[in-house]
Structure formats: C-alpha cells, structure tokens
Amino acid sequence: SERLGFAFEPLALPQLPQIVALVGDRDRKVGEAAVRTLETVVSCLDPLAVPAAMPALYHGMRTVSWHVKEVCLRTVGRLAARAPGPLGACMPECVPAVIGCLNDSNAKVQSAASEVIPTMLSCVDNPETQSLKAMIVRALREPSFTLEAVDEILSQTFVNAMDGTSLAFLMPILLRGLRSETYELVKKAATCAGNMCALIVNGAELAPFLPELNPALEMALEHSSPAVRAEAATARDKLLEGVGELQASARKGRDVVSELLRTRLADALGAATTPPEVAAHMGSLGTSLLERLFAGKLSTSLLAEAPQRLPAGP
After folding, report:
1. Helix, strand and coil in the chain, % to nearest 5
2. pLDDT tens column, 68-101
3. How confident is the model at residue 99, as a pLDDT?
4. Measuring CA to CA, how many Å separate 104 from each of 83, 120, 266?
5. Residue-wise DSSP of 234-300
6. Largest Cα–Cα distance in the chain?
7. Confidence grade of residue 254 (pLDDT, cut at 50, 70, 90)
C-alpha cells in the first residue's frame, strides 16, 4: 500500500476482513503487525474507496474480541477525520454498529465508541443537525436523556433538507423514544419522526431506516392513547410517501448500484482482459463518486434505466 498507493486498492481491500480478524490473534506480534497493516492500508485509501473498507470494520465491531472492536472504532475515527464526505454516506450502517459498542461489557470498547461519536458527526453537512451536536452526543451516550433530546429536536427549526447522514444520528434517538413506555415520549418521538421524514428530498436517503422505523411506528399505532395513534399514523404516511417505490428494495442500495457499474465497466473495457478485482473496485469507486455527485444514497433505477453503452462520438 505504501509503495503502490491507490493502485494497490483492488488487491488490498478484499484482504481487509482477514487483516481485521488477525488484530485479535493470540500471538501479540501477529496482532501488532495486523494493526500496523490496517493503519497503512486505511491511510493510503482513496477517499472514494472508504465505503468499500467499512464492511470489514462493521464485522470487527461485532466480534467477540474487545481489542478488535477498539481498533476498528479508532479506525472509523481516522476515516471520519480524513474522508468525512464519503464516510458520511455510510453513517446509516456505521452509527448502529458504534452504538452497539457503547453497550459493550468492556470499558475500553465503551470508551473508544464514546470518543469516536463526535468525530463521526463531522461527516454531517446539515447546519441544523450540526447545531444539535452536543445534544446528539449526550443522547447517544445516555439513554436517560432521550426525552430532553427529542424536545430539543422538536424545538429546532430546520430550513435545509434532511439527508441520510443526519438521520443516522437522529434516528436511534427517535427509535428509542418510540419504543418507550412513557406516553409523552412516544407521542413526541412520533411527531419528530414525521417531521424528519417530511424533510427528506431523496427517498433513497430514507430507505435504509424503513426496516426499523416502520415497525416502531406500527407498534405506536396500537398505543392506548388516541393522540399517540394519530401522530404515529401521520409519521407512517410521511415515511411511506418519502420512501415511495424504494420500499421493496430498502436494503439493496449500494451493492446493487456497485454491481451494475462493475458489469458495465468491465464490458466497456473488455471483460476478458479486466481482472475481476479491478472491475469490482471500479464499481465501488464509481458508486462512491455518484453518491457524492448526487449528494446521498442512490436509487437503483438511476442505472437500471441508463443506456447500456454511450453513443459513439462524431
């Protein structure tokens, strides 16, 4: 990675899961070498390649080894500081993984997760969400602060469109509120969820949250309070309206777009002469570039409806 830089990415990235696993090796020398290798590979990544590196880190944050979790969390922090734009598109998957580490039984893992959250928030572009940074950090760290956090979100005037990066930090707070046994908190969380859904312009930004938010709102629809049921119904309507035709493919997203790009780029360059690792990496980089250009998650219909080949030049 140090010598070849970006040119080594197609070969280095597929090895990341194994490198992360070796961080927790029983032989300390092996573990230390794996940590150095991980740091080197990550430091040499093209910013657009960051999303392709994240699945290995998510897996590492969910392993048994506390040391692997700690190293992966600190790696996320370095990536957030180095490439906030590309990493921002990963927040819907990254934030839940980090929150899981906040509840870990090991104090070092808890500390690493707590420390990385403010750095991850640097990936947020929405000015209103940035103004709530201190509240978000505290609410994610302290579940008992949820009601105060929801009140602060409701009091905030949002003048800019909401995106998936911002929602990734706000949604865990709202979901916790919706699942509460406190009437006041459930009602306010439902109201807040509806407001957030209404601020979404690109339905693909909202789709990743559908699998958790929709069941939580459906549960609130069965609440004993008519006021809670009314707010939940309004929020659910806004959610489904915002997601639209993406409901059936809420979990596909990036992988589908990446695969479409991989096959089309390989065909254009000559599938027989293009190494599969290079084609896969090109698909991933292309997806990251499109996410940056379109300022968020992509709808798979964008590429499904595209022409197979560009027309020949004059």
Report:
1. 75, 0, 25
2. 999 999 999 999 998 998 899 899 999 999 999 9
3. 96
4. 27, 19, 43
5. HHHHHHHHHHGGGGGGTTTTHHHHHHHHHHHHHHHH-TTTS-HHHHHHHHHHHHHHHHHHTTS---T
6. 69
7. low
